[in-house]
Design brief:
Length: 283
């Protein structure tokens, strides 16, 4: 990101200290962070707001916050901490100032950085992050179609819980098994359709796409869509939502949250190549 003077702008880093962890479901663990930084403000009007957690190579023994330029100079680009993106499931002001954030992490085995970090997080651990980003909030009065796998559950739950009592629609929730259902307080008019795919997500998994295909959007409804999850599944859903449901892109928040077999760095880099684009028309 560049400033008007053409110089690269340094992104502000905040520090979060782990103040608690809990099990949300079979594959979701909650890490609660205390953030003291006065510069941090959660986007409270946005329900998919997210932070980018920074993970440094443990072998370099770097202490957050990270001086990325200095690290690059000493250790080269490979030494620069990598980011992992997580939805702010809930944000509460702390009485002593700053914020307390709940982040819910999918635990997907021993691979990766963020999932294993969350599974082993201890009170007192400190993590650096950028953010928040995010853009979606349910529009009051719209007909809501929400969908996603476990990685999108925090954002979907936050959206449903923010809605007024008269909102209507359907949420299609694709999870591994019965122990992956979570408590969500949704308006009575929004039907929660829990679909169990019977194990971990694989490229053959079509549960989410068939669940969304089965949704009947009422004729003439002012539909607003929020669907996120694995990349290939999102491509199927883009086709389905535009071709079967006849929706316009402007009505949709539809993006990949992760990609099968890709670490997030690779997945983010691929967004600039054809395989990484959900909407092929994107330059
Ligand atoms: C805006 C946004 C918000 C997000 N919010 C959340 C959130 O609240 N909670 C959450 O858990 N995730 C969320 N994600 C997804 C998360 O950023 C990715 O899943 C990330 O790749 C996890 O990092 P990792 O270090 O655990 O695994 P990586 O090092 O990135 O990947 C290692 C391996 O694990 C696989 N993998 C990664 N994620 C999953 C998964 N969910 N299920 C199965 N296999 C996986 C990869 O395909 C790869 O093979 C969000 C992503 C975006 C873009």
């Amino acid at each position: 990101m560049s400033a008007p003077d053409g110089k690269k702008r340094k992104r502000v880093q905040h520090l979060g200290t782990v103040v608690g962890t809990s099990t949300v479901s079979d594959h979701l663990v909650r890490v609660t962070l205390a953030v003291e930084s006065e510069a941090f403000e959660p986007k409270e009007s946005i329900t998919d707001s997210y932070v980018k957690l920074l993970f440094a190579d443990p072998g370099l023994q770097l202490v957050p916050p990270f001086d990325v330029d200095a690290i690059r100079e000493v250790h080269g680009p490979a030494g620069v901490p990598v980011t992992r993106t997580y939805t702010i499931r809930a944000a509460r002001p702390r009485t002593e100032g700053g914020w307390e954030l709940d982040l819910d992490f999918v635990t997907h085995g021993d691979t990766g950085l963020a999932g294993p970090w969350a599974a082993g997080a201890q009170v007192g651990d400190v993590i650096a992050f950028h953010g928040p980003g995010g853009a979606y909030a349910p529009r009051p009065g719209a007909w809501h179609l929400l969908g996603g796998d476990e990685a999108a559950l925090p954002a979907i739950a936050a959206a449903l819980e923010s809605m007024g009592p008269d909102e209507v629609g359907v949420a299609v929730l694709d999870v591994a098994g019965p122990g992956d259902r979570i408590d969500i307080s949704a308006p009575a008019g929004v039907e929660l359709r829990w679909l169990e795919r019977g194990g971990e997500w694989t490229p053959e998994s079509t549960t989410l796409a068939s669940g969304v295909a089965a949704v009947e959007i009422p004729a003439g409804a002012d539909a607003q869509v929020f669907v996120h999850g694995e990349r290939e599944s999102m491509k199927d859903l883009r086709r389905l939502l535009t071709e079967k449901h006849g929706l316009d892109r402007k009505q949709m928040s539809l993006s990949a949250y992760w990609a099968y077999g890709r670490a997030e760095d690779e997945f983010q880099a691929e967004k600039r190549t054809p395989i990484g684009k959900i909407f092929p028309e994107d330059a």
